[in-house]
């Protein structure tokens, strides 16, 4: 009970701090540093200019339709520092303000749905507090999802493969299919992924003793029809997945195995399956914009394993 009591106390404390910062405004000392207190050199690029630099070499950019929009702030805002992350959580927003950055480049949604629609959230207390915290600290949040995946190689995949030491096995002609040089027991592959990605636990449909050589990469959330079509075409030994609907890909893999097929399914979790790609994004952005500090702040695994 002590662990959960402490979690409740921490949540209550955070809510109190945010509400105090929002309600009291300039009357009390701010909980977070304001932009007026930030003094960084080379603060001469606007958000619009930063975005133009980042999408310049992405095939087909700019896209006519994309979820990669500025979700807070304005395009003329000067950039004092950049943070990359998977999910722009309250923790990430707080830490961004504390280090004097004002642009978060987030892979996933700010407001709990893919299109970041907010009309249905107007009466939601958490939405209101999150929005107020962003506005108080003048944090701009730009989504970097479609462009990062459209990059060649896919930015998420490259970051993950670099972390796993598998980048040399990448084949641009078949970017989602990875072939290891030698077959390995699934047990060893699992241990390697858990260690490199710092994942405490995964979900598996398969046999830990089976050997694997071909791996289909389905990081994040991939449509089940696409994955099942890949099973039919490539017959991979392993599907490395972020998340998937349990009544679709999971059941196709289970039925296949009951019929003697070899494909196994490893589910890492959405955040953990793409986080290394956003860590890599910080390095990639820093090379393109050397005069503005770029940091990676992990949003972290939202789940406890109990």
UniProtKB/TrEMBL annotation:
In the UniProt record, which is one GO cellular component term?
Answer: cytoplasm
Query: Pfam families given for it?
Result: DUF34_NIF3
Output the InterPro entries linked to this UniProt entry. DUF34/NIF3 (IPR002678), DUF34/NIF3_sf (IPR036069)
> Which residues are a divalent metal cation-binding?
107, 270, 274
Listed A to Z, the keywords are: Hydrolase, Membrane, Metal-binding, Transmembrane, Transmembrane helix
Task: Identify a single GO molecular function assigned to this protein.
Answer: metal ion binding
Q: What family, per the record? A: Belongs to the GTP cyclohydrolase I type 2/NIF3 family.
Q: Which PANTHER family match?
A: GTP CYCLOHYDROLASE 1 TYPE 2 HOMOLOG, NGG1 INTERACTING FACTOR 3
Listed name of the protein: Putative NIF3 family GTP cyclohydrolase 1 type 2
Species of origin reads Cecembia rubra
């Amino acid at each position: 009970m002590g662990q959960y009591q402490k979690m409740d106390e921490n949540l209550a404390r955070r809510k109190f701090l945010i509400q105090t910062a929002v309600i009291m405004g300039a009357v009390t000392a701010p909980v977070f540093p304001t932009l007026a207190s930030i003094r960084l050199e080379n603060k001469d690029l606007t958000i619009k200019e930063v975005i133009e630099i980042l999408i310049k070499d992405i095939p087909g950019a700019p896209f006519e339709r994309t979820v990669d929009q500025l979700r807070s702030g304005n395009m003329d805002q000067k950039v004092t520092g950049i943070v990359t992350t998977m999910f722009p959580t309250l923790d990430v927003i707080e830490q961004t303000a504390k280090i004097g950055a004002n642009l978060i480049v987030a892979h996933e949604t700010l407001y709990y749905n893919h299109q970041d629609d907010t009309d249905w959230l107007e009466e939601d207390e958490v939405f209101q507090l999150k929005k107020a915290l962003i506005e108080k600290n003048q944090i701009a949040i730009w989504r970097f999802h479609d462009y990062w995946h459209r990059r060649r190689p896919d930015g998420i995949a490259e970051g993950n493969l670099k972390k796993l030491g598998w980048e040399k096995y990448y084949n641009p002609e078949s970017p989602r299919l990875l072939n290891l040089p030698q077959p390995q027991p699934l047990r060893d592959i699992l241990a390697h992924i858990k260690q490199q990605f710092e994942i405490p636990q995964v979900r598996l449909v398969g046999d830990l003793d089976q050997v694997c050589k071909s791996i289909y990469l389905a990081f994040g959330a991939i449509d089940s029809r696409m994955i099942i079509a890949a099973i039919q075409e490539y017959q991979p030994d392993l599907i490395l997945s972020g998340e998937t609907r349990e009544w679709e890909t999971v059941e196709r893999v289970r039925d296949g195995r009951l019929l003697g097929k070899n494909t196994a399914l490893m589910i890492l979790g959405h955040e953990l399956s793409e986080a290394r790609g956003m860590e890599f994004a910080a390095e990639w952005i820093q090379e393109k914009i050397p005069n503005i500090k770029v940091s990676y702040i992990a949003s972290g695994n939202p789940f406890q394993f109990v």
